[in-house]
Write a structure and sequence with these properties.
The chain is of the alpha/beta class. It has 13 helices and 5 strands. It folds into 2 domains: 152 residues, Glutaredoxin (3-Layer(aba) Sandwich), CATH 3.40.30; 134 residues, Serine Threonine Protein Phosphatase 5, Tetratricopeptide repeat (Alpha Horseshoe), CATH 1.25.40.
């Protein structure tokens, strides 16, 4: 089952902005509780086996509190047996800042297909309901640690998620009911319009929020998503891709195809297409491609490693 708040491989999700805000509020409340109690030991059970039936509760819902690393593996896979113990050991060292969910692909083909896994072992992460591919194959320990360090940083900076707090299993006491943190009414109205598919209304609502609070990350991300979805609305995907393939010099065709790439979850394809368009054009055409690429960076988020890579590629072709 692919729940509503999940965005596979970067695909745009109408509820992503709202989920991020809610996750940030929960994380801030958890940090406040931990500070009042003087902190607490990391919980046990940081490595769990997950199947399709438990995916929503054990991965999606928990990803609002802690980044969940997913290890797709199989009993017959030699490299999986090398990577699996390494992941388990490293995740345990994070002491509650990460969870590791192990998914046997032979027993969970639907999840395997939904994530678009091409081979195993394959490692993904889910943060605030959003899926992010990390790496494939039995990566060396240094690469694993660097990738997970970056994941922890992104989760905290973009979503305010810093991990689990609480006593080990068997010693847990019922948590007090969390007080409801009121959401900014203007931002809530923008989220509601986006969820309802009122793209024009969402664009205007997010602009209103930014007029009062130009630094609002949620409003910037929401506006970028609403504008993107408005641009692709009504497009014939097959025709757009045919025009882009047949007319590499047609900048407008490349912009439309890049938008469709991103909405379809093909993030690297969208970025690569626009970087190539910037490289082969000049003047107003080059500027149009560059600005569109920057807009798509906003949709994915500045800290996403795919954005970091594409920014470097853009800099190389510009300078």
């Amino acid at each position: 089952m692919q729940p509503r708040n999940m965005s596979i491989s970067g695909a745009v999700d109408l509820a992503a902005v709202k989920a991020a805000g809610e996750a940030r509020q929960k994380a801030e409340h958890a940090r406040a509780q931990a500070a009042e109690g003087g902190g607490a030991p990391a919980p046990a059970g940081l490595v769990i086996d997950v199947d399709e039936a438990g995916f929503e509760n054990e991965v999606l819902q928990r990803s609002a509190e802690v980044p969940v690393v997913i290890d797709f593996w199989a009993e017959w896979c030699g490299p999986c047996k090398q990577l699996g113990p390494l992941l388990e050991r490293v995740v345990e060292e994070y002491a509650g800042r990460l969870l590791l969910a192990k998914i046997d692909v032979d027993q969970n083909q639907m999840l395997f297909q939904q994530f678009g896994v091409q081979g195993i072992p394959a490692v993904f992460a889910v943060v605030a309901g959003q899926a992010l591919p990390l790496f494939q194959g039995a990566a060396p320990e240094q690469q694993v640690r660097e990738t997970l360090d970056q994941l922890v940083q992104v989760a905290e900076q973009r979503f305010g998620i810093t991990g689990l707090q609480g006593a080990p299993e068997g010693e847990q006491t019922p948590a007090p009911e969390e007080p409801q943190v009121p959401e900014d009414p203007a931002l809530a109205a923008a989220h509601d319009a986006l969820d309802a598919g009122d793209l024009a209304g969402a664009v205007q609502a997010y602009r209103n929020v930014l007029a009062d609070d130009p630094a609002s990350t949620e409003a910037k991300l929401g506006l970028a998503q609403a504008e993107l979805l408005g641009r692709v609305q009504g497009l014939d995907a097959q025709q757009v891709r045919k025009e882009a393939a047949g007319n590499p010099a047609d900048v407008a065709a490349q912009l439309r195809a890049a938008d469709l790439d991103l909405v379809g979850g093909h993030v690297e394809d969208a970025f690569g297409r626009l970087v190539e368009t910037v490289q082969r054009t000049a003047g107003e055409d080059r500027e149009a491609a560059r600005l569109r690429l920057l807009e798509l960076f906003e949709v994915i988020g500045a800290d996403d490693p795919r954005v970091v890579t594409a920014r470097s590629a853009l800099a190389r072709v510009l300078f």
